[in-house]
Amino acid sequence: MSDDIIRPLADYIANEILKNPKRAIRPDEKLISSGLIDSFHLVDLGLFVEQRFGVRLDDGELNADTFDTLEQLAALISARKR
Amino acid sequence: MTMLANILAEHYFFAADRPAIYLQVAGQPDRCITYSDLVCGAAGFARLLEQWGIRAGEVVVIILHHGEPLIYAFWGAILHGAVPAILPPLTEKLLPARYRADLAALIRITRPQAIVTYPQFASEVAYAVRVAAAPTTAIIELAEPLRAAPDFTALGGLRRQGSDLVLLQHSSGSTGLQKGVALSHRAVLNQLNAYAPAIALAEDDVIVSWLPLYHDMGLIASFVMPVVRRVPLVLMSPFDWVRAPARLMQAISRYRGTLTWLPNFAYNFCATRVRAREMEGVDLSSLRAVINCSEPIYHSSHQRFCQRFQPYGLRPEALATCYAMAENTFAVTQSEIGKPISRNEGGGIGHSGQVSSGRPLSNVCIRILSDDRRDLAEGEIGEIALRSDCMLSEYYHRPDATAQAFFEGFYLTGDLGYMRGGELYVTGRKKDLIIVGGKNIYPQDLEALAGEVDGVHPGRVAAFGIFSEEAGTEEVVIVAEAESEEPAERERIAEAVRAYVTQNSEVAVRRVVMVDRHWLIKTSSGKVARSANKAKYLSEFLDQP
After folding, report:
1. How far is CA B175 from CA A33, B105, B332, B390, B528, in A?
2. Residue of B nearest to A15 (CA)
3. For chain B, which ranges sit under pLDDT 50?
4. Contacts across the A-B interface (CB distance below 8 Å)
5. Which of A73, B305, B371, B424 gives B267 a disulfide partner, CB atoms 3.0 to 4.6 angstroms apart?
6. What's the pLDDT score for residue B545?
7. What percent of chain A has pLDDT over 90?
């Protein structure tokens, strides 16, 4: 999976959501079901994804049914970019 | 006195075709539920209760998501004369085992005669019923709305007395679920009779809400009141709103909404998370009141909301405030609609800039009490106590908790505040309570959970809330003493605490800090002193990312 997508996402989540820049997030780490990201953060993450990757997401598209890990989110984004 | 079911019957005869609720579900067309639809749906459910042998006055717990079955189950229980209690269903974040344990604790105390839920959730409920050893609790599965022509001569709800219970309200968490606020018909109707004039409610109003029905602000202000008062209600799911907060603005614009209630965090959330493209064509000029209620109110949140939405027609004078609690059915005070909200600009007591919650409702008497229960003078901060004709009858099956809650006939709210110029200013809580997004969280619940995690010293945990200017609400911090001094191991324990607490409480934890043994301050009686530890945390960790 493309590092160009995963790295900015991991940085954003560590810096802006977890407020812990030292926190490394593995590509297969569970983000939503583990409680790391809650539903309010998902809206922020959606806005970030739209700005950073120039894709458009539907209302509430990012949720526990569509992804749980960075790998899955990156796949969702690259499918949208094509 | 006309009771709730009688009012529903009147609407059925005199307003059958009027829209009661516009039900919104993401991805589906809106559904208009008329009073005729509402009463027939409710009558269908009442018949089901009858078939199950449920009698008037018996408690029916309703565990359903946003949708028609939930609406009909609530009003059907009322028509039948039963006492509905709406609880949140299990979500993907919460561990089923924890949900079952909380539900079992509630069943053990409340002893409901029935629990209504989805077929696919019935086994969870059955398990909780077994754990609670409550063989008399029936589990009623409900998948689809049921409809029936109402037979008003047979429906038990039309023969209720004012002092009979009409519903139970619970707050969240292991602690909150065990105190069901029991309200009578008279209390609910008295609340509406006092609150409706305070907001100048009229039949040409339109209420728009995303609030859950297991919370007083959602249940009373944004569900029971509009249905009783024939005010159309636009109702969306809290899950749909949190995923796309612009839906609230779009619904207000589409239905010319005039009134909406929001907890403080929602002002910040809407102001920062609504995209410009989602606001195209949206007009908020129909709003005559946006009422801030159910968590501490911040002027900065109002400013953000105004700045963001004034270009779309929001009038700043539409912003209003309210102080409310389930124990008073809902509202205790309300600021005057259409007038600027009072703020304490005077100095002297160190609360400059505080936002007023408005004047007591016409049926409410407020006292401010000192620690030794003397009445305090204007401007002095003490515990807010209240008396009204819309207070709880009791905490259901909890005579101990009921007795403790009253002093000289006044309900002791546990909130701190002061009166100034006839208006109430709420300043905090007497006991530790974290309020996140309008949801009350008992820190002892979170501390107990964190203490169950391997690597944490049991009993050496403090949980507290830190107000976030950006979020407009409190964020949860947990400080725990670690058994290991090794940084990587501490990191692992911190992650485990975060995951475990979230999955067992549905509370998102902002930060978990692992500290050395004996870092936490304890009281002389050996309890963790939360406010002292919060102050210590702020001085030691606040500047660190």
Report:
1. 24, 10, 23, 24, 18
2. B545
3. 348, 545
4. 59
5. B305
6. 44
7. 34
Of the partner residues B239, B240, B508, the one whose CB lies closest to the CB of residue A38: B508
Answer whether B217's CB lies under 8 Å from B324's CB. yes
Q: Which residues of A touch B240 (CB under 8 A)?
A: 60
Q: Are B243 and A47 an interchain contact pair (Cβ–Cβ within 8 Å)? A: no
> Distance, in angstroms, between A63 CA and closest chain B CA?
8
Facing A63 at nearest CB: one of B243, B509, B510: B243
What pLDDT does residue B2 have?
80
pTM, entire model: 0.90
Query: Measured between CB atoms, does B374 come within 8 Å of chain A?
Result: no
Paired with B168 in beta bridges are B85, B182
CATH 3.30.1490.100 for the B434-541 domain, yes or no: no
CATH code for the part of the protein at B360-429: 2.30.38.10
Q: Among candidates B303, B314, B304, which has minimal Cα distance to B279?
A: B314
Q: What pLDDT is stored for residue A60 in this prediction? A: 75
Chain A: nearest CA to B273, how far in angstroms? 7
Contacts of B473 in chain A (CB under 8 A): none
CATH number assigned to the domain comprising residue A27: 1.10.1200.10
B240–chain A Cβ distance below 8 A for any pair: yes
List of residues 6+ apart from B117 with CB closer than 8 A? B62, B63, B64, B89, B124, B125, B139, B140, B141, B142
| Encoded tokens for B349 | 């007591």
The pLDDT, as a whole number, for residue B414 is 92
What values do phi and psi take at A31, rounded to 5?
-105, -40
Q: Do domains B199-341 and B434-541 have the same CATH topology?
A: no
Q: Going by C-beta distance under 8 Å and a sequence separation of 6 or more, which residues neighbour residue B481? A: B456, B457, B460, B461, B514, B515, B516, B517, B518, B519, B520
Query: Does A21 sit within 8 Å of B26, measured CB to CB?
Result: no
